[in-house]
UniProtKB/TrEMBL annotation:
Keywords, sorted A to Z: DNA-binding
Alphabetical list of PROSITE patterns matching this protein: PROKAR_LIPOPROTEIN
Pfam families membership: HHH_3 (PF12836), SLBB (PF10531)
InterPro entries: Competence_ComEA_HhH, Endo/Exo/Phosphatase_dom_1, Hlx-hairpin-Hlx_DNA-bd_motif, RuvA_2-like, Soluble_ligand-bd
Protein name: ComEA family DNA-binding protein
Cellular component aspect of the GO annotation: type II protein secretion system complex
Length: 207
């Protein structure tokens, strides 16, 4: 009887050791699988960013340059182009132009109108300019709504259903993905579903 008990105990011990070793071996495999998934996810995000960058670099936008430039008119520039590039396409400034009025380092938006005033114009309107927004600056809010590619956290929180957490999630997504290509893409942000989108779609825009 004692011998049988010892044999049973020995068998149970062997089974416990066998099962334990199996669990131990599985843990590294699970960790490796999780790492592989994370790496794959990062690679997919990187490819998505690269595609957006390539798409943007090949796009063209139109800008209307007028005022004190040599050749006023509508010009085609690359997406992400700066004001100084558009002015150069228009032949440069005239002698009367106030070259410091516009922030020439600002990025141009498609369909934008750039007006270069003369020095006399800005001199007579100096008081109005000093009390307003910086000359040549581009606001995140326009007549068509809030630009989700430029808006600050505070501006995003003005939208219905967008609190601090969702606003921060939008900023994080925008940074990781290199911006939004359409207003519908905001639904890809964690926490923003169809219900929230329906509330804000009429108040948001992209470049």
């Amino acid at each position: 009887m004692q011998r049988r008990t010892k044999i049973i105990g020995l068998l149970i011990g062997i089974m416990v050791i066998f099962l334990s070793s199996g669990c131990i071996k599985k843990q590294p495999v699970q960790k490796e699988s999780l790492k592989a998934v994370e790496i794959q996810k990062k690679e997919e995000q990187e490819k998505k960013r690269e595609k957006k960058t390539e798409k943007k670099s090949g796009e063209k936008i139109l800008v209307h340059v007028c005022g004190e430039v040599i050749n006023p008119g509508v010009y085609e520039v690359g997406a992400g182009g700066r004001i100084w590039e558009a002015i150069r396409l228009a032949g440069g400034f005239t002698r009367e132009a106030d070259q410091d009025y516009l922030n020439q380092a600002k990025e141009i938006r498609d369909g934008e109108k750039l007006y270069v005033p003369g020095r006399q114009e800005t001199a007579t309107g100096a008081a109005a300019l000093s009390s307003g927004e910086e000359a040549g600056s581009l606001s995140a809010s326009g007549p068509e709504g809030i630009n989700i590619n430029r808006a600050s956290k505070e501006e995003l929180m003005k939208l219905d259903g967008i609190g601090e957490a969702k606003a921060e999630a939008i900023l994080t997504y925008r940074k990781e993905q290199g911006g939004f290509q359409s207003v519908e893409e905001i639904k890809e942000v964690s926490g923003i579903g169809e219900g929230v989108f329906q509330k804000i779609k009429g108040r948001i825009q992209v470049d």
